[in-house]
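Structure (tokenized):
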């Protein structure tokens, strides 16, 4: 499709742009088709055909573009190039980026190396910061101590073998005097063998429980009131007073010793999966 009617008389071409436009129109080719064929932006072709050479980067680019259009239209480029300005001190072969390169500034003298830029704060300031950071990183730790500063005192540790008394947990609603739980919690020496007859602890109470490992212990009195229901810690001993019979549940029978009315209670015969349940009368 042509962008100018075929029967419109065309004036004689007097410029390179006019010659290219007439050649294109004579072949019935729209300028958009020419842009697609040459892979050149249409606005550059329009500037060339309208002789708006100042919109193109330079004379070398302009002549290379004209040659490409002539080659696409299959016409002699010599008459067109003769009407275009010659590049000042440049040859056509020096356009390495081709006619598809974006617009760029006109070529000038190559800038010479300027070592004075190293004196700019934007250059040496970051380098100085890096050097200072490296110096602090590799500096011996003792040099960073402030004059007169004293090392922090180590926390005082508890004397070995000291007996500690843990605060009891909050008790439920007050029970009658007969159901009061008396607990004695302390660090106790190692437990004797399971078959030994020695009392498990010095905790006071008609029922005494002592554990060598974590064990859940629950004790209910004759009325079903809960006297004890919690996890005992290793080495902990508990004495319980209340109204018998007691219902006792031990979650870790292998690590728990029980005394009732001064006599040891065997848990192995009543335990299942290491959980013992019994009634003490």
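Design, position by position:
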């Amino acid at each position: 499709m042509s962008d100018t009617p075929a029967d419109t008389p065309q004036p004689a071409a007097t410029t390179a742009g006019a010659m290219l436009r007439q050649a294109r129109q004579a072949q019935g080719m729209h300028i958009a088709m020419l842009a697609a064929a040459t892979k050149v932006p249409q606005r550059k072709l329009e500037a060339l055909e309208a002789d708006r050479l100042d919109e193109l980067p330079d004379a070398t680019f302009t002549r290379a573009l004209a040659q490409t259009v002539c080659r696409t239209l299959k016409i002699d480029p010599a008459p067109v190039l003769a009407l275009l300005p010659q590049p000042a001190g440049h040859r056509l072969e020096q356009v390495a980026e081709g006619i598809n390169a974006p617009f760029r500034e006109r070529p000038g003298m190559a800038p010479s190396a300027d070592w004075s830029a190293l004196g700019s704060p934007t250059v040496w300031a970051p380098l100085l910061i890096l050097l200072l950071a490296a110096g602090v990183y590799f500096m011996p730790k003792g040099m960073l101590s402030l004059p007169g500063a004293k090392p922090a005192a180590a926390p005082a540790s508890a004397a070995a073998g000291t007996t500690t008394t843990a605060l009891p947990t909050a008790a439920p609603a007050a029970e009658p005097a007969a159901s009061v739980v008396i607990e004695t919690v302390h660090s106790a020496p190692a437990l004797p063998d399971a078959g030994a007859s020695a009392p498990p602890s010095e905790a006071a109470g008609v029922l005494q429980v002592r554990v060598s490992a974590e064990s859940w212990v629950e004790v209910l009195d004759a009325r079903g009131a809960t006297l004890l229901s919690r996890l005992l810690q290793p080495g902990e001993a508990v004495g319980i007073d209340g109204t018998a019979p007691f219902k006792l549940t031990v979650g870790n029978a292998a690590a728990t010793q029980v005394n009732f009315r001064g006599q040891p209670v065997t848990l192995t015969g009543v335990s299942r999966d290491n959980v013992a349940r019994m009634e003490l009368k």
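Reviewer-requested clarification: The radius of gyration is 52 Å. The chain is about 25% helix and 15% strand.
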